[in-house]
Every structure is written in C-alpha cells, then in structure tokens.
Amino acid sequence: MYSIVTTAIVYGLESRCIRVEADVSNGLPVFEMVGFLSSEVKEAKERVRTALHNCGYTLPAKRITINLFPANVKKSGTGFDLPIAVAILAALGEIEKNALEETLIAGEISLSGQVQPVQGVLPIVAMAKEQGIKRCILPYVNLTEAKLIDGVTIWGVKNLLELTAYLKGKTYIEKEPIYIEETEQNSKKEDFSDINGQETVKRACEVAVAGRHNFLMIGPPGSGKTMIAQRIPGILPPMTKEEQLEISKIYSICGMLPQTGTLLQKRPFRSPHHTISINGLAGGGMIPKPGEISLAHKGVLFLDELPEYKKSTLEVMRQPMEDREIVLVRQAGAYRYPADFMLVAAMNPCNCGYYPDRNKCNCREADIRRYLGRISKPLLDRIDICIESPLICYDDLTKRKEKNEPSAQIRERVMAAVSRQQERFRGTGILYNSEIPSKDMETYCHLGEKQKKYMKEMYQKLELSVRGYYKILKVARTIADLDGTEEIEIRHLNEAVCYRILDKKYWE
C-alpha cells in the first residue's frame, strides 16, 4: 500500500516542491521516516501517530515508512505534519488517492488533530501556482495570506477530521478568512511639517530618498536627527505590485505578514536596536531566516546611534550594500535573500555628543578618534550623503508650524524625480540613480568640459576614491532630476560634493 502527497518547503526566498511518500507493508511494526530530516521533522512521527489515534484512526501493526524527497534538500519546519498524516491515511485506503492529485498540503497538527498555522505560506502558494497545482490545503489561520495569490483554489481546514471528510467527498464549505484591520496607531504618519529649522538636513534627506542614496546625519543630541529619519516613510514613493509581492514573501517567511487581506502596501522602515547580533542583522540561525537588512528590502534601514553598534555587525552590511543581496552559506546549502535597502544612519560626533565645540565637549582627542573609528572607512565610503545636523536656534524652534513644508509637498518633488529616473532607465533593470553601474556612468551622468574640470579639481583636492567619485556623480544626477534638468550643472556637482566633505572634517 503506497501513496504520495505534494507539499513544499521554503528555501531562501523561494519555495521548493517536496513529495511525501508513505508505504505500509508487512513486517515488524515500526514507524520510520527518512529524507535528510531536521529534528522538528523527525518529531512529526509522534505528533502524527497521536493525532491519528485521537481522531479515531488506528495504525495497523505493520511497517510504515515515510520518505520525503528529494533527499538532498534539508527538510525543516513543522509544515510536514499534515501531508504525512494524509499520506498515511491514503496508503491505508482511508482516502482515495485520486483525491490528492494536483493538490498541495501543508500544516502542523497538534496531538488532538487541530491544524496549526505555518510560516511562509505566501511563497508556497506562489510556487504551487507556477507548478500548475490547482488546489492548496492549508491551515485555516493562514487562509488570509494564501488568498493573496490568485489562480489557485485554497481550502482552509481547522482539524484533521474536517480535512479527511472533504477528501472523502464532502463538499468543501468556503470559509471567511480572518482579517485584522490596521489600527490607527500603526497607520498614522509623522510629517516633516512638525520639524522646525534644519532646512539643510531636510534638503539632504529629500535628495537621498529621491535617488535612494545612503544617508548619514552627524550632530549633537537633541538636534532632530531621529525625528527626521522617522518622517522618511511619508516621502517614500509607492511600491509596484512586484515589489509588494516580493516584500510580502519575506515577511511571510518570518511570520510577520499582517492579516489584512492585502499585500504589504507601505515600504518597510526597520529600526533595530544597537544591541542586535550579526545574525539578527544579516539573517541566519540553525534554520536560516531573513535578517533586518532583508526585512528592509525596498525600504529603509535606520540605524540610530551608529557607533554604538558592534563594529563586526556593521561590517556585515558592506557587501549587501553593493550587491543588494546577501547569501548565507550553511551546511544544508546556500540561502539567497534580497537586501536592496536604503541605509539611513544617525550618530553623535563623540561620546558626549558636542565635538567639535570645545566649549561643551570635554572628550580627549584619543577618545574622539576611538569613537569615530568604530565606523570604518570602507563602510563610510559606501554612504552617499553625509550631513551635519547642528543644534536648532531659538528663532527656528519657535517658528510657526504652518510655515514648515509638509511631507506631501516634498513627496511630490520626490515622485517627479523618480518618474524621470524610471523614464531614463526604462528596460535596463535600473530603478534609481544610486544603482547606476560604473560602466554606464558616462551614459547617464555625462559631464560637460566645465563640469569635468571642476570634478578633476575636487577629485585631487579631496583625494576621493573611485567609489566616492562615482557616488558624487550619482547624487548630482539626482539633484538635477529634482531640478527638472537633464544636464548635470556645476551647482548640482557642488551640492553633491558638499555631501561628501563632512567625513574629511570628522574622520581626517
């Protein structure tokens, strides 16, 4: 007696099809499972045996063998419980085998037979659709998430007895998914009109968002660095459907996808604490999961108090900031996660926060160098825009809020600049100026004779690296887009250079 059931496993950002074979034959009574299994999958044997018993099914005193193939893929997670139980019942003749054709089953079961939710349902259903599978049987709690993929019939089941009844021919009763409305607290937006003064910092922030450039603010405590960063989501451009699906898959894998009945609509804004570990930032663990840099994909990763992070943790970002993805190599294989994020960071210039104002700063030169040295030169070189955030004067502080520019007005200019970039890069796979490869710099950041002469002077005077030189051109390209001009002018280059000289002031 033999049966086979289709299920899936999340591997990286995608999902892989797994076949569960069940064979019940004469021999010594034993329940054996093979197929490169992790500990939680091996434990499914006891969960399934007890759940079947509590649902009224008695396993015969025969040899039961379960094989999960392909055997070269490490099986992890608890989503194999339900397909293993169904495969055994089909092998025993309790379920017709033709009822399992073109069907994918996934879910965890408790000892009483209740079907429990699993993570990564969105990429699993997306894979099923690509493979031509017409029906997915999943836990009822995951129904909202599974319904986000069109073109596949979804059955949401609450327990094992309900599932077996449907597979035996009982008409499936369509269930209403569980929707959780977004609360007002989660949906409210911080607005730039709340910030008095700091016009230069707000301008630099606008440029950074328009071209998705990495952005660093340096200044004393209380100068508004964190407030400005928290208002960035209000000026980010909207996501495309493809971006929404890609980001929703990441959050589904981590079990963080809101049950609102829609894909994620807002770009991520992640702000991890400075005590975060390397695995927490980059991803990993025994069962690799995306880290904060992947959760910030197509959005913003905000690191407040940047020097307080461990230096080894910060250095992990260097490669993903260039490649826009991270590959985690483990014994079970290589896991590839996207990491196309905009880095926004804020920091004090020293331990007390008031350097270079020696009237307030009491730090020793060695302490200041040690504090700033926590940010390595290679990491600093990957930051496109570095701006100083000074203390706000009294006149700016008491200025009427109505005179401040709101986020909606800034967002209009950002959207206009993004539209120019989309038109320029149509069909190239490039989305923002920050992504222009070095081989295409002459094409998209062409300079006239005066501009070349100016940049030659800046290159030699500032002792720029090749990366630093190209980043100035990319930022100047974004500034020109905000101005609505196709030609990069001297004033655009001058502003872009000003965003690169601050590292000379503090680090050299």
UniProtKB/TrEMBL annotation:
Signal sequence segment: none
| MF GO annotations | ATP binding
A Pfam family annotated for this UniProt entry: Mg_chelatase_C
Supply the SUPFAM superfamilies for this chain: P-loop containing nucleoside triphosphate hydrolases (SSF52540), Ribosomal protein S5 domain 2-like (SSF54211)
Q: Which SMART domains match?
A: AAA (SM00382)
Domain AAA+ ATPase residue range list? 211-393
Q: What PANTHER family does this protein map onto? A: COMPETENCE PROTEIN COMM (PTHR32039:SF7), MAGNESIUM-CHELATASE SUBUNIT CHLI (PTHR32039)
Give the family, as the similarity comment puts it: Belongs to the Mg-chelatase subunits D/I family. ComM subfamily.
State the name under which the record lists this protein.
YifB family Mg chelatase-like AAA ATPase
Species: Roseburia zhanii
